[in-house]
Amino acid sequence: GDSVTQMEGPVTLSEEAFLTINCTYTATGYPSLFWYVQYPGEGLQLLLKATKADDKGSNKGFEATYRKETTSFHLEKGSVQVSDSAVYFCALSDRAGGGSQGNLIFGKGTKLSVKP
Amino acid sequence: ETGVTQSPTHLIKTRGQQVTLRCSSQSGHNTVSWYQQALGQGPQFIFQYYREEENGRGNFPPRFSGLQFPNYSSELNVNALELDDSALYLCASSLVTFPDTQYFGPGTRLTVL
Q1: pLDDT at B24 over 70
Q2: What is the pLDDT of residue A97?
Q3: What pLDDT band is residue B99 in, cutting at 50, 70 and 90?
Q4: Considering A24, B31, B48, B63, which has the largest number of Cβ atoms within 10 A of its Cβ?
Q5: CB contact set of B61 (below 8 Å; sequence gap of 6+)
Q6: Are B113 and B15 in contact (CB under 8 A)?
Q7: Three-state SS at A41
Q8: Which of residues 27-86 of A touch B (CB under 8 A)?
Q9: Are B45 and A102 spatial neighbours (Cβ–Cβ below 8 Å)?
Q10: β-strand B10-13 against B108-112: which pairing, if any?
Q11: Cβ-proximal residues to B21 (8 Å cutoff; 6+ apart), any chain
């Protein structure tokens, strides 16, 4: 079945460092791809998304490009801040899994800690 | 515009008991999905409701059941609780025009003793 694999954390960076969190996926169809962020004690917030190959999703300085040839959707940010400390989840929409709207399949999450 | 809300925030139950969790969708959303997030893991899809019918289910046993109401709010019911049911339960709703984009509530933390 469809699946998502993320780089293991935790990732610890200094403020203003460059961030990359790797994400690769396996899917039989053409899923949409997402990055969600979870701050301590909270639910998930949609960070960005891409719906087809070569689309670039971006939000709050974060970017990710849907690469069909490498089945990847790596998250990047040029200069992280302390406030970016959170757990980041890569996900895909599994239309093949049933449901008219598609359910989401998540990776295990990558914890990011940014030090001042 | 009100976001997705869930109640209660926290809940403690004992093995064998039954629990009901509640979710109110974001305004205008007609689809509700429920996810289970074990500690240190990504969320796992339980099931989805669309127009008050179950419309997709993950790999969860029948003791996990749900309802969706005409106002699109939803309930998740779990019978015969087991220790492994301890998790954060997340509800997500989506707009009919953007079906893949799901908006999550803050979750209900269930502890089974």
Answers
A1: yes
A2: 45
A3: low
A4: B48
A5: none
A6: yes
A7: coil
A8: 32, 34, 36, 42-46, 49, 51
A9: no
A10: parallel
A11: B6, B7, B8, B11, B75, B76, B77, B78, B89, B91, B108, B110
Return the amino acid letter for A79. Answer: S
Among chain A residues, the shortest Cα distance to B91 is held by: A43
Residue located via tokens 């719906």: A51
- Residue from A3, A45, A92, A104 whose CB has the most chain B CBs within 10 Å, to mutate: A104
HEC states along A51-95? CCCCCEEEECCEEEECECCCCECCEEECCCCHHHCEEEEEEEEEH
Q: Which of A100, A1, A93 is nearest to B48 (CA)?
A: A100
Tell me which long-range contacts B60-64 makes (C-beta under 8 A, separation of at least 24).
B60/B36
